[in-house]
Write a structure and sequence with these properties.
alpha/beta
């Protein structure tokens, strides 16, 4: 990431492939480490399942989140997630 930042990459998408599609929750620890180590915006992906996950990601300082299976399965309503970030 350091090298890519030097090359001008404006943001990163962090996907924990071990959690992607599992509905187990994001890897908050790893996302937090990335945000502390780099000032480049991060979009979190992988395991986002609940409104509380969205709120925790906001508190961590992510720029955005990718939500997939939780929306498809109906476990998370888009309107609820959007309210959580405003």
């Amino acid at each position: 990431m350091r090298r890519l930042t030097e090359l001008g990459v404006p943001r990163f998408i962090f996907t924990d492939i071990g959690r992607d599609g599992t509905l187990r929750g994001p890897n908050f620890a790893a996302i937090g480490r990335l945000l502390r180590a780099f000032r480049t915006p991060v979009i979190a992906s992988g395991g986002v399942t609940t409104v509380e996950h969205v709120r925790r990601l906001v508190k961590l300082g992510v720029e955005g989140a990718i939500v997939g299976r939780a929306l498809y399965d109906g476990g998370l309503e888009l309107a609820d997630a959007l309210r959580a970030v405003t």
